[in-house]
Write a structure and sequence with these properties.
Helix 2 links the parallel strand 1 and strand 2. This protein starts with a helix and ends with a helix. Helices cover 48% and strands 11% of the residues. By secondary structure, it is an alpha/beta fold. Strands 3-2-1-6-4-7-5 form a 7-stranded parallel beta sheet.
Length: 262
């Protein structure tokens, strides 16, 4: 197995610290462990703990399924019991699709994530248990948790797989830390510079000349409003310089074709 130190440093560069530990209890398939690792690294979760994983779990299938998140697998620690795996944690949640006969706090993923962020800010260690793919967590494992996390799925089809659940919980934890989707589309590459107003206005005038020529804007009373509507359609797109050139090329192509036919 590779030296864990370089992989820890690599993970540290790619992800934030203070994330909750992800504890997989009796995972059955190496592929699922790998996909869970991939889901973890997507959202900055870098600590995987495995309780009695089946067989030789760190194999080619797991690494392939991790799709670049192999350092999570290489750093994962294994334990004989769930109690040993969570011994150092201050707060422990457990995922379950079925509410058992236990008196415990039950939270949706978003509320759990907010709680974890608050506890982490106080220096407490948190973790969350995920059960075997087929049957979920045993009641003895659930008894160790202070909170149950239930995903509000379709009641008639509530089963989601291990990696999906890890991804969902990781997303909520990441979001609770203030992560936001970009509000502006980042444009890169050739022709990606936003068009200048003079280029956009020249395009509008070109289009409107041809619309006048073909009779589309023939009703004088309606023309101003129709022109404004057309301009508003294109203004919402935030045209780039290359897009303006393409649109003007389309106008030329259509009008020249029509004139040749005439």
């Amino acid at each position: 197995m590779p030296d864990p130190e370089p992989t820890k440093r690599a993970a540290a560069k790619r992800t934030p610290g203070g994330a909750p530990a992800i504890v997989l209890v009796e995972p059955q398939l190496a592929d699922n462990i790998g996909m869970a690792a991939r889901a973890m690294l997507n959202f900055g979760l870098t600590e995987m703990r495995l309780v009695r994983p089946r067989g030789t779990w760190l194999n080619a299938k797991a690494i392939a399924a991790a799709s670049g998140a192999h350092e999570i697998l290489e750093d994962a620690r294994t334990f004989d019991t769930t109690a040993e795996a969570v011994a150092d944690l201050n707060r422990l949640a457990a995922t379950t699709a079925r509410l058992r006969d236990m008196i415990k706090d039950v939270s949706p993923p978003r509320d759990w994530a907010a709680m974890v962020r608050a506890e982490e800010a106080q220096g407490l260690r948190c973790g969350i248990l995920f059960g075997p793919e087929r049957v979920g967590l045993h009641n003895d494992d659930l008894a160790l948790a202070d909170t149950l996390v239930t995903v509000p799925t379709n009641p008639s089809f509530s089963s989601i797989n291990l990696a999906q659940t890890v991804l969902l919980l990781g997303y909520e934890w990441h979001l609770a830390g203030g992560a936001e989707a970009p509000s502006v589309i980042l444009r890169k590459g050739y022709g990606s510079v936003p068009a200048r107003q003079e280029e956009i206005i020249a395009f509008y005038e070109h289009l409107e000349r041809e619309l006048d020529a073909c009779g589309f804007l023939r009703v004088k009373e309606k023309r101003p409003r129709m022109v404004r509507n057309i301009r508003n359609i294109f203004n919402r797109i935030l045209l780039t310089q290359q897009e303006v050139k393409t649109l003007r090329g389309i106008i030329v192509g259509l009008t020249e074709f029509q004139r040749r036919r005439e």
